[in-house]
Amino acid sequence: MDKPHRIWVIALSFLVAFMLTAMPLPDFALPWRPAWIAMALVYWCMALPERVGVLTGWVIGLILDVMHGSILGQHALGLAFVAYVVLQYHQRLRVFPLVQQALIIGSIAFVYLFAMLWIYRLLGSVDYGFSYLFGALTTGLLWPWVYIVLRDVRRRARVA
What we know:
The chain has 160 residues and is mainly alpha-helical. The chain has helices at 7-22, 36-47, 54-68, 74-95, 98-123, 134-157. The chain has one domain (7-14, 31-157).
């Protein structure tokens, strides 16, 4: 008997990530906002690389571009890059301890956020300071919990 695909679990995790990204925060906490969507994308690229990949990152990024009102394709390019890097190293990332994964995912988030900051500054659309990059630190710190929660959800829903 074939395993059920249960793609709705993946879509629901991205919906929750979008909601967390859109959640209002006080001004002092805005620079520390984790890259929720990037973390969800990284997890699913590691867990199901044959089903979630660069195209998924591109589509999710386009939705994020519309949500933020940024240049169409900005986040799409960044998330496609994130997905590409994770897909290239997903077998190695899977076997690393969570602390080492957190350092790597935080580094990937730093590159992603730096690229977004560079594009924002280049085009002059939004004036974020370099504190925008603090989100990479919180992304790395929250990665172990996000990984454990999504892994448990995937196992209980038997997503294959």
